[in-house]
Amino acid sequence: MLRDLEHVERYKHPSPQWPAFAKKLRRLVRDGIRLSRWEDRGLPEYASRRDRLHRRLDELMAMPCKDAQARRLLKRFRRHRQHLFTFLDDPAVPFDNNAAEGAIRPAVIIRKNSYGNRSQRGADAQAVLMSIYRTLKQRAHDPLDTITKALAEYLRTGKLPSLPP
Hints:
Blueprint: H1 2-12, H2 18-36, H3 44-62, H4 68-79, H5 86-89, H6 98-113, H7 120-138, H8 143-157
């Protein structure tokens, strides 16, 4: 959400109504991040503050907005309302997506170093291969060895084996 705000401010030339909307949303998100850092989520005060954040989000989404960018963001927030503050309910869920972005970074670097995929078919193939590679790596398997064995199995039997557990 914070990145969306920054993107609008940098590239979309928002209307004069934008700063008030952005200020409320930025404060809401930062309050949520601060709350997510609480050690004891079982306290009644934690639940009360979390519920208050949800009410503030509902109030923000109910606000009439003239700014096109704010309306666009609010429409997406309404669609994903149930998931916006998941990190407050589940301590295993981070408030950002840095781990996910870090996981796809190697694929981006490979694509850049090879000057792109040059076709949609090449892009699709790379996406599948990188997904398999990262999944194997996260499951503590040697990706090259596992893929080599899978291809050998395919050549021998005509069927691809499933990914190892």
